[in-house]
Amino acid sequence: MGTNASAILEPLRQGLPPIDPTTVSHSASCALPTCYEAVRGARRFTQSTLGAWNLADRFDDVALVVSELVTNALRHAVPGEPEQPREDGLNPPVRLHLMHWASRLVCAVRDPSQDSPEARQGDEDCAAESGRGLFLVESFSDGWGWHPLAGALQGKVVWALFRLTAD
After folding, report:
1. What 8-state DSSP symbol labels residue 120?
2. CATH number at residue 141
3. Could you tell me if 11 and 159 are in contact, meaning their C-beta atoms sit under 8 angstroms apart?
4. Which pLDDT score is estimated for 82?
């Protein structure tokens, strides 16, 4: 887990909503293994981080969005099938970032794919058990977006914004 806000925000800043990155109150990140167990780990990380930031009352909505973003990264952005956690010491390709400003919280998931995330349209098979992740992200957050990473970093970041106070 890292807490250096500028190091976390540097690769994310292009696609974030217009919030001054120098005013981040708190930030935290964690690398996630390329297996579906990572979703549970991301939820635990989110719960402990929000608790430390006195934002535990926002856990349900934020955890649902984090779960969907991590699941999407594992399902659509990691080459091959998600597997057991790696033991080779290599840096996992999926990373969760949480950033807290006075009135906003951003959760962002970095993955190795530059493919655009695509939300299913409402008229498509509503009974489908999968494919509704970005619809849930849009429903439970105050906004979301994505951008490809630039420079030496490859992949993209998908983020969701939560307003903590009425602006």
Report:
1. P
2. 3.30.565.10
3. no
4. 61
